[in-house]
Amino acid sequence: MDRPRRLRTTPAMRALVSETRIHPRDLVLPLFIKEGAREPIAISSMPGVVQHSEASLADAVRAAADAGLGGVMLFGVPLVRDEAGSGAIEPDGILNRAIRIAKEAAEGRTVVMADVCLDEFTSHGHCGIVTPDGTVDNDATNALYCAMAVEQAKAGVDVVAPSGMMDGQVAEIRSALDAAGYEHVSILAYSAKYASAFFGPFREAVESQLDGDRRTYQMDPANAREGLRETDFDLLEGADMVMVKPAMSYLDVLRDVSQRSSVPVAAYQVSGEYAMIEAAAANGWIDRTGAIMESLTSIKRAGADIVLTYWALEVAPRL
Ligand code: PBG
């Protein structure tokens, strides 16, 4: 008889034959920084996650470097928003300040990445310029993404991460960075990003009020093939890394992307995925640690090289 149970007999045996391992370097910690905050501010729908002050951001980046994390991903929460999201492009805007603080704290020990998207900075909450008829203007938005990416590069960012799902955004940002002398700055493209209910708690994290939804630019959850098409475009446009987002409901897409990609593949375990596990665990309905580790393992098993997760700091010492 075949007895596969032999390889499950002891913890040491199971560790020996484990097919999927997670290393702290695979993990990226998303961090929020709130303009003007004196203290870290709790985010109620994401227990354990905060909006950082400038001082606590530096501490968090040092902790990430000490834990051996692969990187941090920065999101800014500005005090003032307008139609065009102009705070994103101000050299001293909150996200650009955060990049300078994070770069200094990181001392080259962990990679500093930043979100290139306007939704945190616009009054209407959309990821780009909204025209009078209510559509998001693709090409006008790309021009702003280019300016935003160049400001981030000036602030010293290692990796820019365009997440707005505008057509051609990777190619345009690549040429803008190169033209400004930042050919060494990498692009992590949010390639297959879906219009997902699992981004819900993120809205509280960045205090964004969204008019309507994002279904004219983020992808339909029904479409897997289209995710591959988006990934192919981003690879051709010069993405250094590609991403699938959210992670757990899109493991099939992640698997297909990882088999096809010639560059490292990231997956983002988003705010709603975090909140679901925290909420169920707080009610005593699931084992918290077990669920966290199983979720991360499944994302790596599906083919992610890099996982963005709000639990990065917590799990790193266990790996
Ligand atoms: C766009 C952006 C979003 C997230 C990351 N980048 C929000 C959105 O597209 O609606 C969501 C991350 C999360 O939910 O954890 N700036």
From TrEMBL:
Catalyzes an early step in the biosynthesis of tetrapyrroles. Binds two molecules of 5-aminolevulinate per subunit, each at a distinct site, and catalyzes their condensation to form porphobilinogen. Its EC number is 4.2.1.24. Keywords: Heme biosynthesis, Lyase, Porphyrin biosynthesis. The lineage of its organism: Bacteria, Bacillati, Actinomycetota, Actinomycetes, Micrococcales. Pathway: Porphyrin-containing compound metabolism; protoporphyrin-IX biosynthesis; coproporphyrinogen-III from 5-aminolevulinate: step 1/4. Pfam families: ALAD. InterPro entries: ALAD, ALAD_AS, Aldolase_TIM. This is Delta-aminolevulinic acid dehydratase. Belongs to the ALAD family. It comes from the Bacteria. Homooctamer. It catalyses: 2 5-aminolevulinate = porphobilinogen + 2 H2O + H(+).
